[in-house]
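Exam revision sheet. Question 4 asks you to relate a sequence to its structure. Input first:
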Amino acid sequence: MKVEQLYNRFAPFYDPFRTLWRKLAAEKIENFLERELLARCLPLKGKILD
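Answer key, C-alpha cells:
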C-alpha cells in the first residue's frame, strides 16, 4: 500500500480521534509532564522559556 493510499484511508478518522484523545488523555499527560517529568529534569530554581 502506498503512503498516499494509507493516508487517504485514515484521514477521515484523524479529527474525531484527535478530539477524543484530547478529552481523555491530553490533560493527564500535561499534568504528568508538569508534575513528574519537569520536576525530575529541571534544577529547583530552573526556568522554562515558553
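Marking note for examiners. The CA atoms of residues 23 and 36 lie 21 Å apart.
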